[in-house]
Amino acid sequence: MSEEILRNPWLVNSVVMLVLIWFSVEDIRLRSIGFKGIMIVITAGIIYRVLYILLFREVEIYSIITGILIIAGTGIYSVKTGNIGMGDVTVILFVGVVKGLEFALVSTMMALTGISLSGIICVIRKKITGKASLPFIPFLGISTLGVMLCG
């Protein structure tokens, strides 16, 4: 029974999308993600991945090491520059842990493209100035849904 649940793509995708919707609302409304929410999501993602590895004996060590390095680098960058928030890093980490490194990278690249285009359009239309910030998590949610639907 537990094996069916962990391998059910609709269930896993639904949980990922619910987390992304929850964090998107917080990101838009509060411009930050609460520490409690971050810890809940990271813990849930790690528990999911550990159970998956224990039940199916499928471990991609290169993916795990690369993911840790990318997230650590992004986390250090965000702390030093403040250009990307820890909530954004947490969401990317969660998507990477649950869906895999390649999925997270494609979703993140699509989200970065989307937010860049939106920022350019807003600056051209004089809706925001060059120093304004846009919430990233909604773009990550939309790109993650797109990658889920398009495969």
List the helices and strands and how they pair.
Layout: H1 2-7, H2 9-30, H3 35-56, H4 61-81, H5 86-99, H6 101-124, H7 137-150
Provide structural commentary.
- This protein is mainly alpha-helical and 151 residues long.
- It has one domain (2-150).
- Helix content is 81%, strand content 0%.
- The protein has helices at residues 2-7, 9-30, 35-56, 61-81, 86-99, 101-124, 137-150.
- α2 packs antiparallel against α7 (137-150).
- It is globular.
Top keywords for this entry?
globular, 7 helices, 81% helix, mainly alpha, 151 residues
Task: Summarize it.
The chain is an all-alpha fold and about 150 residues long.
Poorly predicted regions are none
**Terminal-residue CA separation:** 25 Å
> Any idea what the shape is?
globular
Q: Overall pLDDT, averaged?
A: 79
Strand content: under 5%
